[in-house]
Amino acid sequence: MAKLGVNIDHVATVRQARRTFEPDPVWAAMLAQLGGADGITVHLREDRRHIQDRDLPLLRQTVTVELNLEMACTDEMVQIALDLRPDQVTLVPERRQEITTEGGLDVARTQVALADAVQRVQGEGIMVSLFLDPDLDPIDRAAKIGAQAVELHTGAYADAPRDRRAAELDRLTRAGQRVRHHGMRLHAGHGLTYRNVGPVASLEEMSDLNIGHSIVARSIMVGMQQAVREMKDLITAAARGH
Ligand code: PXP
Fold it and tell me: Does the predicted TM-score (pTM) go above 0.85?
């Protein structure tokens, strides 16, 4: 059965909207673990738009399931990973202007830098996963580089109109077979929701699914009623003079 890595970046997005202390992604990580998360994923972006440096050591100290650090392939980030020692590093492409990670790594163009980062991080006993579009060429290159895992970008599948869905699932199936053929661990993520996760979770030997936005969005919806009731109770008590 595939493991669930819960990406808590967007809890931090809400916090950073006010540059305040709440909601704290460290607390959210605890609740996610109580809910059964097999892993906690955070993306420390170079522009620090959501997760902050302060969050990382706190998460390292408190997360008892797998901690997966998503990051760009830069010297600064590799050093942060070596200091933090997460259980896993996922290398992703990063562009300042993007709303979210828009595509997989361009392995052909960045092969030397990726190989160097993989060697340095895996050399310290931390598994490295490369975030790739579900195409065969980047997967073959990832295997040559020696990455232990590949995370397939499921965005095209998630965004596909109904008549393209089956074709995108076939693409993921073939890519997954290639990842396993090379003996690498198979991960997937991006754009997965309560509606579309099933077929991806069913792919053969799927090891880890990383899901963020949809879970954080739903947690707001399932928590809103209680949150409002608690505030209403305080106001009612104040009106009664308590
Ligand atoms: N996997 C990777 C590599 C990502 O960059 C992201 C987005 O940060 C996710 C998974 C989670 O995507 P989503 O928030 O759409 O579930």
Answer: yes
